[in-house]
Amino acid sequence: MALQVYSTLTRKKEVFTPIRPGQVSMYVCGPTVYKPSHIGHMVGPVIFDTVKRYLRYLGYQVTWVTNITDVDDKLIIAAEKQNTTVAELAKRMTDDYFECLKSLNVTGIDHFPRATDHISGMIEMMQTLIGKDLAYPSSGDVYFDISKDEDYGKLCNRDPEQLEAGSRIEVSDRKRNPGDFALWKSAKPGEPSWESPWGAGRPGWHIECSCMAWKLLGEMIDIHGGGLDLQFPHHENELAQSESFTGKPFARYWMHNGLLKMGAGKMAGSIGNVLNVVEALKHVSGETLRFFMLTTHYRSPIDLGDWDPRSPGAPVIPPGLDNAKKGFDTFVRFAERYARISGTAYHQLSVPRERQDGRAFQKPEFAELLGRFLTYMDDDFNTGGAVGVMYELVTVLNRLADSAKLESTQAISPERDAFLEGATLLKEMGQILGLFEQAPPERAIGGGDQIVAGLMSLLIDLRNNLRAEAKGITDKTNPLKKALFDQTDLIRKRLAELGVTLEDRAGGTDWRLG
User: Fold this and answer.
1) Who's near 1: CB < 8 A, 6+ residues apart?
2) Cysteinyl-tRNA synthetase class Ia DALR domain spans which residues (predicted)?
3) Which residues belong to the annotated binding site for Zn(2+)?
4) Which tens digits make up the pLDDT trace of 186-232?
């Protein structure tokens, strides 16, 4: 099937047809850099990085812009509290944001424009809007007049009065209408400011994105993305001022991702229940975090489960993320198994970068699984369904490795060739989702502490000796045989209670934490 994308503007799935054949422009709203990135800040980047990866897999050239809001009320307040400058705080938090993106394999963003580098373009847009009588200056401020925009509210499918009633809108006696929004704010003492035809001041939030999208991607773009919480007022206002400025449709597809939720609540800095990315990475890998965000369809909420870090005795990571870690460990173990069979690292395996229809595989079920994977991705980037197909494929590959005893021989065989082919296909699927690009964490097998490693080796040898002795007793009714096997089971059980998993395979027994 052809790729279909759900657009918030039309409220339906549409066949994806870019403005320029073979090329896609994408703008995704970025962070206001006044505090460290929590895992909720990574949801949008991970999702739209996956969108770009799949579009490139389909053969499109994609240009993706994500802005950095480096001047804002929140930044000014935070900088004052920390006794630093807005510029210093913005740089420090931007660096933190970039490191978090890198940890989660978000590599597809082509441009990171900063709002403060585009002030002149914003002033140009405001002057044009004033010239069209769609905006007005008022005592040093500039406001967009929503009464002059006949279809204002179309993105949210609400009339202006409904939008005003359901949202917090800045109150000012300088406005003509309560719903009018600021394009320019006059400077207050001690705040960062720039000169303009209306006096010293700084831009409003919404005009920043409109300007940067226009300057870097043109008057019309293919995809505009962001979190569901940005639909109003930010995206509604952005759409209104951009289309009023150009007289053309702003974005062909408006994509909004669901947000993180914690049981019946949400993760929010104002509540104090956030999990910063840096803290999360102490307990799970960046790829595990990414995997967690992709196991749900991007338009649905991502459930962390009931968790509050402020509660005494709360687990270090939310239950939803812990479950995702256990699920992703299936693929981590497979990567290690592939390395044992092939002698090469799985994350370094080269795979096709573009879709190749009509491919032949040694095992017909590989073709069937690839077809279903692509069908899910073509259906509005359904990564949750695609991950399910990957689980099916890794199960097939593990059964093949077990039945052919591939870990106990390096001999060339049809089964080994099929295994390697299927492993390459799994890596190809993972590449589209931005997974399997990092080496398995060192803690996955063995462990770094020499004493712990030595004790584990001793326990494994003891268990293997007990198993060998039990297997040597041919009389199945001999009570000693059962007693010996009971001891081996006890060792496995007690280690599992300590978070240690034993893995028996043809070449011996390995152990892992978690």
Assistant:
1) 375, 378, 379
2) 372-445
3) 29, 209, 234, 238
4) 999 989 999 999 999 999 999 999 999 999 999 999 999 999 999 99
